[in-house]
């Protein structure tokens, strides 16, 4: 096996990773012999990485209109070959997500870079992040919650995505800023370590020509207050994924408002937790955005 963290999967794992129901996978096995699972002493199905790769390819072909009865007749090497032939703009997103999943499950940097290079030849970095990386990271959260992947898998793929973000951000940081009416200060609350969304916002704001001050994770509000001595018109941006906890959320927003707001300052929030913010009575200097795209459109 490629690694000793998770290289054998249950049928539920395959369902979570492919989107194909376990019941359907069993039917495909019984009728068409598309996968040959290993069996435990108690007759429980187990699958290896090759089976996962095959199922992900079959899923793409099936989504594209190929019948399972037809796919089942193909020789072993025909399926990946056919997948490569039919990949178009329509299917590139789902294929790339599948390839990145396989790179993650195998801890395979080469596959990650090959898939990324294939995408960047046709798409901008912005398109890759919005169309592929964000859906991928959303899926990873669900896979982690269901024990399909380990924290090691999530950290591995997150680090590689972070690398690409840093490389593309640096290209913008060396350019002269074109808009000087406001400065964006980007930070995360204390104990919030999910940084990719905020890092991408930094990239988008730089792309628009603004100056950004990127402070990253676990930033005390008192430290944010220090920034106000250096700049006049500031928008503080926070990306709320798991912190603060829901019952502390409104108190955190209120404390930020008390410490930071004045006529030249705004507070902007996005991320998974913003749906739980009580919007009633919020200052008109506080803006809530339901997505990265919505926030960028509001700049």
CATH fold field value of the largest domain: Rossmann fold
Measure the end-to-end span. 49 Å
Adjacency order of strands in the biggest sheet: 5-4-6-7-8
What global shape is seen? elongated
Radius of gyration, Cα only, in angstroms? 23 Å
The proportion of strand residues reads: 5-15%
Protein name: MerR family transcriptional regulator
GO molecular function: DNA binding
Pfam families: B12-binding_2 (PF02607), MerR_1 (PF13411)
Domain HTH merR-type: 8-77
Write a structural description:
The chain is α/β, with parallel strands linked by helices. It folds into three domains: 1-89, Multidrug-efflux Transporter Regulator, Chain: A, Domain 2 (Orthogonal Bundle), CATH 1.10.1660; 90-174, Methyltransferase, Methionine Synthase (B12-binding Domains), Chain A, domain 1 (Orthogonal Bundle), CATH 1.10.1240; 175-298, Cobalamin-binding domain (Rossmann fold). It contains 13 helices and eight strands. It has helices at 11-18, 22-32, 49-63, 68-71, 78-86, 89-106, 109-120, 125-145, 151-173, 196-207, 221-227, 246-260, 292-297; strands at 8-9, 38-39, 45-48, 179-187, 210-216, 234-239, 265-270, 286-288. α3 packs antiparallel against α6, α6 (89-106) packs antiparallel against α7 (109-120) and α6 (89-106) crosses α9. The longest helix has 23 residues, at 151-173. The chain starts with 7 loop residues before the first strand and ends with a helix. This is MerR family transcriptional regulator. One of its GO terms (biological process) is regulation of DNA-templated transcription. Pfam families: B12-binding_2 (PF02607), MerR_1 (PF13411).
């Amino acid at each position: 096996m490629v690694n000793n963290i998770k290289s054998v999967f249950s049928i539920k794992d395959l369902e979570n990773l492919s989107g194909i129901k376990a019941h359907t996978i069993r039917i495909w096995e019984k009728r068409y012999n598309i996968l040959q699972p290993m069996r435990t002493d108690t007759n429980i199905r187990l699958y290896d990485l090759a089976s996962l790769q095959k199922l992900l390819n079959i899923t793409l072909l099936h989504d594209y209109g190929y019948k399972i009865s037809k796919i089942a007749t193909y020789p072993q090497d025909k399926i990946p070959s056919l997948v490569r032939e039919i990949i178009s703009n329509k299917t590139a997103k789902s294929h790339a997500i599948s390839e990145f999943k396989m790179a993650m499950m195998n801890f395979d940097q080469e596959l990650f870079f090959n898939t990324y290079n294939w995408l960047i030849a046709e798409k901008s970095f912005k398109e890759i992040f919005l169309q592929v990386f964000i859906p991928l990271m959303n899926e990873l959260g669900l896979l982690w919650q269901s024990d399909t992947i380990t924290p090691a898998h999530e950290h591995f793929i997150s680090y590689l995505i972070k690398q690409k973000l840093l490389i593309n951000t640096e290209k913008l940081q060396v350019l002269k800023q074109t808009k000087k009416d406001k400065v964006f200060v980007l930070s995360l609350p204390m104990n919030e370590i999910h940084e990719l969304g905020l890092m991408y916002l930094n990239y988008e704001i730089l792309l628009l020509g603004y100056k950004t001050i990127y402070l990253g994770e676990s930033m005390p509000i008192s430290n944010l207050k220090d920034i106000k001595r250096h700049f006049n018109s500031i928008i503080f941006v926070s990306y709320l994924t798991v912190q603060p906890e829901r019952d502390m959320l409104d108190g955190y927003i209120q404390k930020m408002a008390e410490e930071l707001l004045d006529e030249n300052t705004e507070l902007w929030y996005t991320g998974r937790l913003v749906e739980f913010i009580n919007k009633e009575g919020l200052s008109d200097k506080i803006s809530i955005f339901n997505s990265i795209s919505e926030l960028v459109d509001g700049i």
